[in-house]
Specification:
Blueprint (H helix, E strand, L loop, with lengths): L1 E7 L1 H5 L3 H11 L2 E8 L3 H7 L9 H9 L3 E8 L2 H9 L12 H5 L8 E3 L3 H11 L13 H4 L6
Antiparallel strand pairs: 1-3, 1-4, 2-3
Bound molecules: uridine-5'-diphosphate (UDP) and magnesium ion.
Uridine-5'-diphosphate binds next to loops.
Length: 153
């Protein structure tokens, strides 16, 4: 099944929103196949946000992402990249639809609580960036047939 990378950003950690995000992931039926806390630094953020390095806000973004540890998660599910991006909502919390994580829990374009991979290709690269192979677990919950129809898995 497909996998995606999620980062609970410092804005989620400091605002005690970890449980809210994890709860929605679990309630949706997505499988958590890796999860750990880590301190990010500018080096890894220059890779992770390579598309933004030249933007004027990049130094502020690095500062906001390194202010405290983050929690990185690897999620598994059918079409999980698209599913979790839609649960995340638009980048700017003020524009994100109610019902999405950003729409419900933040009002900022930068302090927007979660990162979600934006394509299957990028998800593979991002998962390899943040997790060692032995930190990921290949298992299916025993109630998988209550989560998906037989022809979906
Ligand atoms: N960001 C920002 N200002 C902007 C655009 C993005 O501070 O004008 C930050 C924000 O935290 C965002 C991250 O950079 O989540 C990555 O930007 P991207 O465009 O990839 O948005 P995302 O994929 O997170 O929705
Ligand atoms: Mg992005």
């Amino acid at each position: 099944m497909e996998r995606t990378l999620v980062i609970l950003k410092p804005s989620a950690i400091e605002r005690s929103l970890v449980g809210e995000v994890v709860k929605r992931i679990e309630q949706k039926g997505l499988i958590i196949c890796g999860m750990k806390m880590m301190q990010l630094d500018e080096k890894i953020l220059r890779e992770h946000y390579a598309h933004l390095v030249e933007k004027p806000f990049f130094p502020m973004l690095v500062a906001s992402m390194t202010v405290c540890p983050v929690i990185v998660m690897c999620l598994e599910g059918k079409d999980v990249v698209e599913v979790f991006r839609s649960m995340t909502g638009s980048t700017n919390g003020r524009k994100a639809a109610p019902g999405t994580l950003r729409g419900d829990f933040c009002v900022s374009g930068q302090q927007n609580i979660v990162h979600a991979s934006d394509s299957v290709e990028n998800a593979k690269i991002e998962i390899a960036r943040f997790f060692k192979p032995d930190e990921l677990f290949d298992f299916k919950p025993r109630n998988i047939r209550s989560i998906y129809a037989d022809d979906e898995i």
